[in-house]
Amino acid sequence: MALRSKKIGIFDSGLGGLYVARAVRAMLPHYDYVYLGDTLNVPYGGRSLDAIYTLSKDAIKYLFEEQECDLAVIACNTASVTALRKLQIEFLPKHHPDKRILGVIVPTLESATELGASRIGLIATDYTVRSKIYDEEIEKINAHATIFAKATPLLVPLIENQGEKYMDMVLADYLEPLIEQGLDSLILGCTHYIEVKDRVRDLTRHRVRVLSQDEIIPPKLKDYLSRHPEMEERLGQGGTLKIMATDINPSFLKNVEKLMGEGVKTEVAAF
């Protein structure tokens, strides 16, 4: 058996992926993790396709080559939309054929269809909605399901800048036209939105099933590892966590403390 020394990398353009990292560690606490937030270049949504791909590729390359990760989870929906497929098809076979990169969009839609969803609402950034990636992927998984998407650009700034007192008003305005579509499920299509999942459930009066990626990705990752023992057997089991960011600013540190607890050190990632 190969020496268990490799880590699971979790990458996000900023802090949203911390919610996923926290949830993954709660379900799979024994593995070793490296979280990487590209806080220097956040947000990705206003950048070109080439820029997002390059930033994502550089981050994954850093996790693989400098941080001893053999498996990387792209927790950023924008990067999953833009870069994941190209990384899997072009970058991995050429540079790291024994490593793997997973995203959040397909597991989210798989979970929705496993629960019987057919009229699926989606709130996400403008970039993710315009990409229509959720529409394309649901067609492959269940051609009878329909996506009703709504761009919700105010949510991330409110979440990142302590705008709680405005949140219910903004959410209600975004959600009302979606609920009128007779949804059976609603996907929170940005990792930041995990922060407001309970508010969304309250505002929809629990009339629709709210699908939050912190509740979806951990069991999907656990299932992936059980189906790929050749990967699982390489992973270290020291229960360690390293948090890295390309720019360690006060906002990021505050959110690290809030989500991961006090005393968690953050290191600068330079690549």
What do you see in this structure?
The chain has 271 residues and is of the alpha/beta class. The protein has two domains: 7-103 and 215-268, 3-Layer(aba) Sandwich (Rossmann fold), CATH 3.40.50; 105-212, Rossmann fold (3-Layer(aba) Sandwich). The protein contains 13 helices and ten strands. The protein has helices at 17-27, 49-65, 77-82, 84-95, 105-114, 126-131, 133-141, 155-160, 164-179, 197-203, 213-227, 229-232, 250-260, and strands at 7-12, 33-37, 69-74, 100-102, 119-124, 146-151, 185-188, 209-211, 241-245, 266-268. The strands form two sheets. Strands 4-3-1-2-9-10 form a six-stranded parallel β-sheet, with helices on both faces. Strands 6-5-7-8 form a four-stranded parallel β-sheet, with helices on both faces. It is globular, with a radius of gyration of 18 Å.
Write the layout of secondary structure elements.
Layout: E1 7-12, H1 17-27, E2 33-37, H2 49-65, E3 69-74, H3 77-82, H4 84-95, E4 100-102, H5 105-114, E5 119-124, H6 126-131, H7 133-141, E6 146-151, H8 155-160, H9 164-179, E7 185-188, H10 197-203, E8 209-211, H11 213-227, H12 229-232, E9 241-245, H13 250-260, E10 266-268
Parallel strand pairs: 1-2, 1-3, 2-9, 3-4, 5-6, 5-7, 7-8, 9-10
Helix pairs in contact: 1-11, 5-7
